[in-house]
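Thread amino acids onto this structure.
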């Protein structure tokens, strides 16, 4: 939870749930999907203040507080989950946490979907929520230009090619938001500005928010 709080306090417009494994925070090789909550709840981060992993419910409760009402949440939904189970359980969890009275969760949560089979389930369990396609393949992502209410969250390096440039033009022509991950370093920052990205996902939100020219969203 400390990382989420730190990003919000640094001024990030949004936070992203990301890790599929326990390696980065806890130095454990396991995939999260392969461990039950009894095991995970006992782990503590190696870095101070040695925190436990928050559950989605706890993160939503934090975001529901009045001073966080402008912060939105990108849920990176990993493809190694059982598709129906993860979408159904997430919907139940979101429904269980009262939102801020002025900002329903449908206006604050964006579903990050990697592959096509999750899209019908998003329509079933989250019919009023926005979707972003998380991808490292412009050619695969093109199919989602035909769907309404879908933005694009692309690996920045995947757009450094002629095919990537064409994809950016087509996304712009369709008037869809374009986000880039994971943007790090001044050269990548300038490239994102030049190509008019709507937002960036970065491990250093403070660095990006210090710039005189800013993105619509820093995650």
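Threaded sequence (219 positions):
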């Amino acid at each position: 939870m400390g990382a989420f709080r730190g990003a919000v306090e640094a001024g990030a417009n949004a936070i992203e749930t990301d890790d599929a494994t326990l390696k980065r925070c806890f130095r454990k090789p396991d995939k999260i999907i392969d461990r039950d909550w009894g095991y995970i709840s006992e782990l503590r981060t190696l870095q101070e203040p040695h925190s436990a992993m928050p559950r989605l419910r706890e993160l939503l409760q934090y975001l529901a507080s009045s001073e966080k009402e402008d912060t939105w949440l990108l849920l990176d939904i990993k493809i190694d989950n059982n598709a129906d189970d993860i979408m159904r359980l997430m919907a139940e969890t979101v429904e269980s946490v009262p939102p801020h009275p002025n900002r329903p969760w449908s206006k604050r949560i964006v579903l990050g979907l990697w592959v096509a089979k999750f899209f019908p389930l998003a329509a079933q369990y989250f019919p009023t929520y926005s979707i972003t396609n998380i991808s490292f393949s412009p050619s695969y992502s093109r199919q989602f230009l035909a769907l309404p209410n879908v933005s694009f969250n692309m690996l920045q390096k995947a757009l450094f090619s002629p095919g990537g440039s064409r994809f950016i033009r087509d996304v712009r022509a369709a008037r869809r938001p374009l986000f880039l991950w994971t943007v790090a370093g001044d050269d990548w920052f300038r490239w994102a500005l030049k190509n008019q990205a709507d937002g960036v996902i970065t491990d250093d939100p403070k660095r990006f928010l210090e710039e005189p020219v800013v993105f619509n969203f820093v995650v």
